[in-house]
Specification:
Blueprint: E1 3-13, E2 16-25, E3 28-33, E4 43-46, E5 51-54, E6 56-58, E7 66-67, E8 70-71, H1 76-85, E9 88-94, H2 103-114, E10 120-126, H3 132-143, E11 148-152, H4 164-176, E12 180-184, H5 188-195, H6 207-212, H7 215-232, E13 235-238, H8 244-250, E14 256-260, H9 262-266, H10 289-300, E15 306-307, H11 338-349, H12 353-367, E16 385-388, E17 420-423, E18 426-430, E19 433-434
Parallel strand pairs: 1-4, 1-5, 6-9, 9-10, 10-11, 11-12, 12-13, 13-14, 14-15
Antiparallel strand pairs: 1-2, 2-3, 5-16, 7-8, 16-17, 17-18, 18-19
The structure holds N-(aminocarbonyl)-beta-alanine (URP) and zinc ion (2 copies).
Length: 449
């Protein structure tokens, strides 16, 4: 079995930072401590002066999913390779429930596709139809280790929406079996009312995208979901929260967990006026600078639990120029830039790096029942970690991306890419270059947070 010792790094974990060695055998951490002794066969990495973080868990990706007329550009192979370059060693993606399929069948299809992944993969189960047979599958899936389910309060036209009443029934079942309900929280009534103005297709510029999905939609949905969480005792995880008002409302409900995304922290709706504005069309839309600052404050106040990329990329040609904003496939790439851009922000803003660990790995591990092995660097955990040079902050990194995409939303922003990434004990990135990683593993929850 291979043996690897990482010496003298500053190990940054959710509970603090210590100068320690980490000893890895095979896929597993077997010791963390001072001056660990090793045999002659052990490969040694000197991490003096470097930071060591747990491998990042991206709780929200969409590899190769159908959106409007397109399919998100990364499949599990290309997207996971890109993820590793940015320090993401685990992605949590979603099933796609096709017409006539059961939840189990939708899971089997995605499991097969995910076999191509080069990092570990967990799968949330999308519930986009409310039928007795579908509901009956939930307890069994939870007992198999698939404990997170996602519903939508909008996308009625795409046949994906559940009503609040239906969501409450789903939450009752999930809550009573110890699972987690994830919700895309934009109130469909608010969106329908706001987007009616654009139905005649006279105003079609991407700048109207944000106006057609107003901030109030999130507030209204979160109010409803907060009450549902109280009535059903179900943990409800709000994906891609993006507004100041939504954040304040979510904080009123202890069973709501909040995820935001780098695009809401780093970009604003002003992007829609740029020449490439169409490329920033994703749902929910980018918001105002005031929303952005509220999210940063919420991070510092502990109101945000995780940051996920919502990686759902499209190339320049996939979002054709001059088509109405209503027809642009929604989504942006971000799995590779998630951690490097956030780390640089934390450094520039002087924020606590242990908080960054909570937001980018340990909290997601707890919420999704992966915390026995992920999000922590301790005896028995999966050996997933990143080594970072504290002096590596740069704005000149775009050409180093390991991606099939031809467009990047974060051009010119500061970033810090890991020089080494270790996934289950294997060095998958060395001197910032992705090597030839082995395949990842499909994860199952072992406990619910
Ligand atoms: O625009 C986005 N975010 N596309 C991905 C699907 C979703 O709603 O998260
Ligand atoms: Zn969504
Ligand atoms: Zn998403």
């Amino acid at each position: 079995m291979s043996s690897l010792l990482i010496q003298n790094g500053l190990v940054i974990q959710a509970d603090g930072q210590r100068q320690e060695d980490i000893l890895i055998q095979g896929e597993t951490i077997v010791a963390v401590g001072q001056e660990l002794g090793v045999s002659g066969q052990t490969k040694i990495i000197d991490a003096s002066g470097k930071w060591i973080f747990p491998g990042v868990i991206d709780p929200h990706t969409h590899m190769g999913i159908p959106i409007k007329s397109g399919t998100s550009a990364d499949d599990f192979a290309s997207g996971s390779r890109s993820a590793l370059h940015g320090g993401v060693t685990t992605i949590l993606d979603f099933t796609v429930l096709e017409t006539g399929q059961s939840l189990f069948e939708s899971l089997e299809v995605r499991k097969k596709l995910a076999e191509k992944a080069l990092c570990d993969v967990g799968l949330h189960i999308n519930i986009t139809r409310f039928e007795p047979e579908i509901l009956a599958e939930i307890p069994h899936l939870i007992s198999m280790g698939f404990n997170s389910f996602k519903v939508f309060t909008t996308y009625k036209e795409a046949g994906m929406m559940l009503t609040y009443r239906e969501i409450e029934t789903v939450a009752e079942i999930i809550g009573s079996h110890g699972g987690v309900l994830m919700v895309h929280a934009e109130d469909d009534g608010v969106i329908t009312a706001a987007s009616g103005v654009y139905a005649d297709r006279i105003k079609t510029h991407p700048e109207y995208h944000a106006k057609s999905r107003p901030a109030e939609a999130e507030l209204r949905a979160i109010e409803q979901l907060g009450e549902i969480s109280k009535r059903t005792d179900c943990t409800i995880y709000i994906v891609h929260l993006n507004t100041a008002a939504g954040l304040v409302k979510a904080a009123e409900y202890p069973l709501l967990k909040v995820e935001t995304c780098p695009h809401y922290l780093l970009l604003t709706e002003a992007m829609y006026k740029q020449a490439d504005g169409r490329m920033f069309v994703s749902s929910p839309p980018l918001r105002t600078a005031a929303d952005q600052e509220a999210l940063w404050q919420g991070i510092q106040d502990g109101l945000v639990h995780t940051i996920g990329s919502d990686h759902c990329p499209f190339c320049l040609g996939d979002k054709a120029q001059n088509i109405p904003f209503q027809d642009i496939p929604n989504g942006m790439g971000g799995v590779e830039t998630l951690f490097p851009t956030l780390l640089a922000q934390f450094v520039e803003r002087g924020l606590d790096l242990s908080l960054l660990v909570k937001l980018t790995s340990s909290n997601a591990a707890k919420i999704f029942g992966l915390n026995l092995f992920k999000g922590i660097l301790s005896l028995g955990a999966n050996a997933d970690l990143l080594i970072i040079d504290p002096d590596s902050i740069t704005r000149n990194w775009e050409s180093g991306l390991d991606t099939i995409l031809d467009w990047n939303a974060y051009t010119g922003l500061p970033a810090m890419f890991p020089e080494t990434v270790i996934c289950r004990g294997e060095i998958v990135v060395s001197t910032e270059q992705v090597q030839t990683p082995s395949k990842g593993k499909l994860l199952r929850s072992t406990s619910a947070g």
